[in-house]
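Human: Respectfully, please carefully check these tokens:
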Amino acid sequence: MAVERLASLARSTDVGDRVVALRHDLHESFPRGRFDLICAHYLHTPAHLDRATVLRSAAHALRQGGRLLVVDHGSTAPWSWNQDRDLRYPGPREVAADLGLDETTWTVERADSPRRIAEGPDGRTAEVTDHVLLLHRTA
């Protein structure tokens, strides 16, 4: 649904020819190409997935001047399937450190944890935390 929504929005704002929205099985491979922007939103899964490797692949697929935006859960919503009280989400600086990118060619433009009101599938609302990391490939 998000892929279709992004593609539709890109077409409606006359950038459809420059935006490629992909859904991809990251267990199998990473999309080919060089990109200006790669967004990874809520890349959490109960299945085994080496997130650091996937995000590192994303970073290396960027052109010089490109950006990697990673938005992760920072808290668990009350309607989430996983209510494990010991569940811990790595913060944005931890995610950046796990990538092991060369600091001479990468800049952290944003690393914070804003709160927002989210709405669950049954209409309930709750305050949740997101972890936001924006990396810029400078060279």
